[in-house]
Amino acid sequence: MIDTVTNIILLSMLVITALAIVRMDRLFAVVMLSGVFSLLSALLFVTLDAVDVAFTEAAVGAGISTVLLLSTIALTKPVEKRARHTALVPFIVVCVTGAALVYGTLDMPAFGDPNAPALTHVGPEYLARTPVDIDVPNAVTAILGSYRGFDTLGEAAVVFTAGIGVLLLLSGLRRRREDEEEDQA
Amino acid sequence: MSKLLDLQFLAGHAHYLLFIVLMMTGLFIVVDKTNLVKKIVGLNIFQVSVFMFYVSIGKVKGGTAPIFPMDDKYHVDTAAMAGQVYSNPLPHVLILTAIVVGIATTSLGLALIVRIRESFDTIDEEDILAIEQDMTREDNKKHGNAMGGLA
Known about the structure:
The structure holds two protein chains of two kinds. By secondary structure, chain A is mainly alpha-helical. In chain A, about 75% of the residues lie in helices and about 0% in strands. Chain B is mainly α.
């Protein structure tokens, strides 16, 4: 019961933060609020028993991603322009999508139901075999590094590719800028 | 839809409803706002909401984090595990991977925004569209006849 109340309070705070982000037009404030959003979601991950996900979200979502967004607004403009179009069409699109998703959740098992299909197949198997097969105390580490090691290898490949992409896009930024200044002079 | 009026049902599904509200706030930012940095922030909100939804599927009522007790020889103490309920660790693993991949795509998007600002001197979608239409009009004026009428 107390769990549910905590979760609902955290989720309401997340909704308020998200609505504040919608209203805000100073990008610095938007970036700070997105950091707040990440920290609140890390708290929610703790109450959902996902402690590993919580500290990854706190480090990556509130740390690295805030730094990246701040450096982007330092290289671009810090204020958002008011949109010239009406918000009616996006609002309708969002409402229709949301209604479809709510309709989809109606068939789902209740939150925390121990007999849900997601909790009765491989999950318990991993929990039962980790102490015997791998003998590390954290089941998440055992799955991440051993049972599903190839997923982690794929993840490394994706991060490597994205890193190359960012380097290619941003390389020569200063050189091009200096060339421009020379042209103008 | 009549299920939504049942209190018992609503208590079990309130989390899902709130996750969907969060997702839709993110989607609204992506569709409605014209500033590209803000679109990325909206995409992040959508993404984190999906993560929370996914992790919530692995939660077991009365369960705890899937970290086992150890004995004094630093092996997992299977005797102390008896009777303890653990949440499903598999969604946690998948979402850990997804968070890292998410930050990789976010950084790529932000690098693209920096390049767009370099070429167009703006990061507003409507301004970029106007500039591109002007460029097309210029092109049509210059080369339209050679192409056999306006392109």
